[in-house]
Amino acid sequence: MIVELVTIGNELLTGHTIDTNSAWMAERLNLSGIQVSRITSVSDSRKSILGILKETEARADIVILTGGLGPTSDDITKPALCEFFNTHLVFNKEVFNHIENLLYNKRCKLNEHNIKQAEVPESAIILHNDEGTAAGLWFEKNKKIFISLPGVPFEMKGLITKKVIPALKKAFSFPSIHTRMVITQGSYEAHLAEELKDFESSLPSNISLAYLPSPGIIRLRLTARGTDAKKLADEIEMQILKIREIIPEYVAGFDEDTLETVIGDLLTERRQTLSAAESCTGGTIASMITAVPGSSSYFKGGIVAYSNEIKKDQLAIEPSLIDKYGAVSKPVVEDMAINCRLLFNTGYSIAVSGIAGPSGGTDKKPVGTVWIAVSCQASTVSSEFRFGDNRERNIKRASVTALNMLRKMILSNDG
């Protein structure tokens, strides 16, 4: 079964809009046993749309398109579909009633563009869109299925989840797929690959391992394919146990976990609190922590001590320490962590000071040099890192590394 995705829109090809639709669809389809073989983006033009329809008809069994079903003049997917499927637009009363009710509930005025959206290809099966005014369309031709969905992400997601996947699974028999993710921090891709070389070579033929790197985090995705869903789940769990035995120091979470959610759970379970003193990360750590619902119960606050004056005045760092060792140093970052914890009266604290770049580095402290400290009443631990020469990645890596250092400290205190 060959499945292809097609995203339609000039904005995707100019770089003004990132194609998140195809990534989300591919993930959801894959989890349902529907494996995507190709993803293509084309422009909003009759020639491009007709061209990709002809191409995919020749090689795919199922084609899912998104985009170009809106109410404006540049949305030309429906006319192109009519031409390809040798049909024409007809007014659909049921679609119109839905559009009318939806706009009324949103206190929006119905206009001729909205009415035009009630015109749909006569040969299409209508997939009613609960979230928007553009109906999804299902076509069948020469034993091939073509599905056209709106490009608005939340509308597309609703249709994929509620209509498309259930209909496809009813029409076809797909294999079972079970996927788990192991979240790692503190290593790099080549090193993990070396550590897991024997593990990977011993995997059963129906299980695959993929490395998904991002700044500071590498996700290990285990995917099992077969016919027995429970057996696949059990097999994956056995492999995860093996990974935890091989690289226990790097495993920071699983599946949808993030370091900030893991930290939140750990602090909540222990009824502990946290504060942060940030320099080069500029409040990124606090932002990550407070993005988690319920974080107000354990995160008291933080200070963005970007200048030395703030380090001295707000965090009470001794000027002599900065003069002697520099702001990016072990003594300064440890004092930042300790004084922040005392200032906010929290059980734990994080402090970060570094040179994010692209300027400011020296021979002894090049761009990417970052000192991180975590502190609790029993101890303060600090480490120096060299993250590289990219400012954005340095900030992200420093933030997730700091959170992982805190995670390890909290867990070590349990012992």
Structure characterization notes:
It is elongated, with a radius of gyration of 27 Å. By secondary structure, it is of the alpha/beta class. The chain has 16 helices and 17 strands. Helices cover 42% and strands 25% of the residues. The two termini are 52 Å apart. The mean pLDDT is 95. It has helices spanning 10-14, 21-31, 46-59, 77-84, 93-105, 112-116, 153-171, 189-195, 197-201, 229-246, 259-270, 284-290, 308-313, 319-325, 330-344, 391-414; strands at residues 3-8, 36-42, 62-66, 89-91, 119-121, 125-127, 136-141, 144-149, 176-185, 207-214, 217-226, 251-254, 274-278, 299-304, 348-354, 369-376, 380-386. A six-stranded mixed beta sheet has the order 2-1-3-8-7-6, with helices on both faces. A five-stranded mixed beta sheet has the order 14-13-15-16-17, with helices on both faces. Strands 10-11-9-12 form a four-stranded antiparallel beta sheet. The chain has three domains: 3-171, MoaB/Mog-like domain (Molybdenum Cofactor Biosythetic Enzyme, Chain A), CATH 3.40.980.10; 176-254, 2-Layer Sandwich (Alpha-Beta Plaits), CATH 3.30.70.2860; 259-414, CinA-like (Maf protein, Alpha-Beta Complex), CATH 3.90.950. Helix 11 packs parallel to helix 16.
Short account of what is shown:
This protein has 415 residues and is an alpha/beta fold. The chain has 16 helices and 17 strands.
> So, CATH architecture of the largest domain?
3-Layer(aba) Sandwich
Helix content: 40-55%
Which structural category do the helix and sheet elements fall into?
alpha/beta
Q: Could you tell me the number of beta strands? A: 17
The value of Rg in angstroms is 27 Å
Oligomer: single chain
Specify the CATH homologous superfamily of the largest domain. MoaB/Mog-like domain
Biggest sheet layout:
6 strands, mixed
CATH topology (level 3) name of the largest domain: Molybdenum Cofactor Biosythetic Enzyme, Chain A
Write out the strand line-up for the largest beta sheet, numbering strands in chain order: 2-1-3-8-7-6
The overall pLDDT average reads 95
Low-confidence stretches: none
Discrete helix count: 16
Shape: elongated
